[in-house]
Amino acid sequence: MERSSKVDELLQNINNIHELGRQHAFDLGNPFYAKYPGDGEHYTKELPTGEKFLVDIEIIMDDNDMPVQIKDTIIKML
After folding, report:
1. Ramachandran class of 29: left when φ > 0, alpha when ψ lies in -120 to 50, beta otherwise
2. What pLDDT, on a 0 to 100 scale, did the predictor assign at position 1?
3. How far apart are the C-alpha atoms of 9 and 54, rounded to whole Å?
4. What is the pTM of this model?
5. Domain count, the chain
6. Can you give the residue range of the structural domain that contains 61?
7. Percentage of residues of the chain with pLDDT beyond 90
8. Which residue spans within the chain are E strands per DSSP?
9. Are 6 and 20 in contact (CB under 8 A)?
């Protein structure tokens, strides 16, 4: 069985996976959270409008240890 050429293309440039996650978050109308070099212990929050913030996050879990909500506290606008 052969893999599709699109899969091969994605696997050749594995550094683009976060871009797919960002696009999917924006398609759903959600912010995108990522940890970049220089963020320290904080995260970068990017909104679909292009605004970026340095934030602390708290992940709220349900009884089955599944994430149900992300609460963020803005440290500063980037």
Report:
1. left
2. 47
3. 32
4. 0.70
5. 1
6. 5-77
7. 46
8. 32-34, 43-46, 52-61, 67-77
9. no
